[in-house]
Each structure stands twice: as C-alpha cells, then as structure tokens.
UniProtKB/TrEMBL annotation:
Its EC number is 5.3.1.16. NCBIfam families: hisA-trpF. It comes from Microbacterium proteolyticum. GO terms for molecular function: 1-(5-phosphoribosyl)-5-[(5-phosphoribosylamino)methylideneamino]imidazole-4-carboxamide isomerase activity; phosphoribosylanthranilate isomerase activity. Belongs to the HisA/HisF family. This is 1-(5-phosphoribosyl)-5-[(5-phosphoribosylamino)methylideneamino] imidazole-4-carboxamide isomerase. The active site is at residues 17, 137. PANTHER family: 1-(5-PHOSPHORIBOSYL)-5-[(5-PHOSPHORIBOSYLAMINO)METHYLIDENEAMINO] IMIDAZOLE-4-CARBOXAMIDE ISOMERASE. InterPro entries: Aldolase_TIM, His_biosynth, HisA/PriA, HisA/PriA_Actinobacteria, Isoase_HisA-like, RibuloseP-bd_barrel. The lineage of its organism: Bacteria, Bacillati, Actinomycetota, Actinomycetes, Micrococcales. It is found in: Cytoplasm.
Length: 248
C-alpha cells in the first residue's frame, strides 16, 4: 500500500454555473466572459452518472444581481436526487436563504452577504450550522465581493470574525486562477489550514489530474474537497478519472 492510497479521499464537487438558464463557465469570475455549455440539468445528470457525490451549483445571475435562475436550480436539484448539492449565488437575506434551503440543497454558500452583512451571516451560521458554508473569494489576501467587482476587506480579519461566529466550512477561491486552468493556489490553501481547524473546499484553477493529486495531499491538513469546473467542460479529464485520483 503506497502513501497515496492511504491518503484520505478528496471530495470533488463538479461545478454547474448557470446564467440565463444555461450552464456556463466564466474566466476569473468576470461577467461577459461566459462560454455556454448547454442545459444545466443535462450537465448535472451527466456528473451524477459519472459518480459525483456532490455538485456545486451556482446562480450567476443572482450573484451578479441581474436576475434569478431559481426554477432551473430546483430542476437541477430534482434531477440529481441522491447527489448532494451545494448552492451558491445571490443568497443575501432570510428570503433568499429560505428559498435556497427549500430547493432541496444540502448546503448553502454565503458569499458577499457574509462580508457586507456580518451580523446577519453570524445569525445564519448560528441557526443553520453545517448547512452553511462561507465562500471566500481571494485576490492575494484581499477578499473580492459582489461578483468579484468590489474589494471586500482583508482575508485574515474576516476569517477571524467568521471563526468567532462558528462558521463550519469555507469555500476558498483564488479569483486570479478561476476559469484559467492555471493550477490551484496551494500556498493560500496551506496557510488557510493553519489559520482554521474547519474544513476547506478549494476552488479555482484545477486543470489536471496532477492538480487533484496535489489537493488530495492537503486533505490531512484540512482541505476537504475541491470544486472542478472548466477543466471538465474543456475535456482536460473526465469526472470519473478525477474521482479515481481523488480516492473515490
């Protein structure tokens, strides 16, 4: 038994990002860089067939404050019964949070709201515990807010506040790498694991099976999972191959 086989598995979350009812990918999170990949329900069903245990589902129109794909989101979640869904995008108040929870998602990602409305975020974390993760979108160690167009403060200051609030999990995206296929920011993830005992889901830049292996090496430190998007759509590898490397 080699060391790699004994490393705990890395949870993979294939991403389905939805804009205007279509599955799309962005480059560095910028509106206007969408490449369309067809029907999100089909994309999610395909990932489920290949063995996904989780799907990371994002409503980009809600995230950018330009509309909502709530109906499509519900359809996707219904289609992949048995697969857990982490839902993200535009969840900023009790109304949008309750709608997200009622859609059947297993976990809700708070993004901008956790930065702009820390009291509300702390209350939600307190009420819903494990069902809430906070997305930290980072350039260097500066957080990016609202569709990554605004500066959201210092990562470590915000992390300390979220730790005090009892946040159960962080989804960490290096904005400069997202959608670029340039590899994940391993240094940032290592530093995060030193600053919080909570599980971390890595996002952004995964381009090869080697990247997945490198992230799996961080599992003992606290990186629980990785979101994989563009690499799957661009055909760099299949989800089935990725799951194999991740230890499923």
């Amino acid at each position: 038994m080699n060391d790699f086989a004994s490393t705990p598995e890395l949870v993979l979350l294939p991403a389905v990002d939805v804009a205007d009812g279509k599955a799309v990918r962005l480059t560095q999170g910028e509106a206007g860089t969408e490449t369309s990949y067809g029907d999100p329900v089909d994309a999610a069903a395909d990932f489920a067939r290949q063995g996904a245990q989780w799907i990371h589902l994002v409503d980009l129109d809600a995230a950018f404050g330009r509309g909502s794909n709530a109906n499509v989101m519900r359809k996707v979640i219904k289609q992949v019964k048995g697969v857990q869904v982490e839902l993200s995008g535009g969840i900023r108040d009790d109304r949008t949070l309750e709608a997200a929870l009622e859609s059947g998602a297993s976990r809700i990602n708070l993004g901008t709201a956790a930065l702009e409305n820390p009291e509300w975020a702390a209350d939600v974390i307190n009420r819903y515990g494990e069902a809430i993760a906070v997305g930290l979108d980072v350039r260097g160690t500066t957080l990016a807010a609202r569709g990554w167009t605004r500066d959201g403060g210092d990562l470590w200051t915000v992390l300390e506040r979220l730790e005090d609030a009892g946040c159960s999990r962080y989804v960490v995206t290096d904005v400069t790498k997202d959608g670029t296929l340039r590899g994940p920011n391993i240094e940032l993830l290592r530093e995060m694991t030193q600053r919080t005992p909570k599980p971390i889901v890595a996002s952004g830049g995964v381009s090869s099976l080697d990247d997945i292996a490198a992230l799996r090496d961080l599992v003992p430190l606290g990186v629980e999972g990785a979101i994989v998007g563009k690499a799957l759509y661009a055909g760099q590898f299949t989800l089935a191959e990725a799951l194999d490397v991740a230890g499923h």
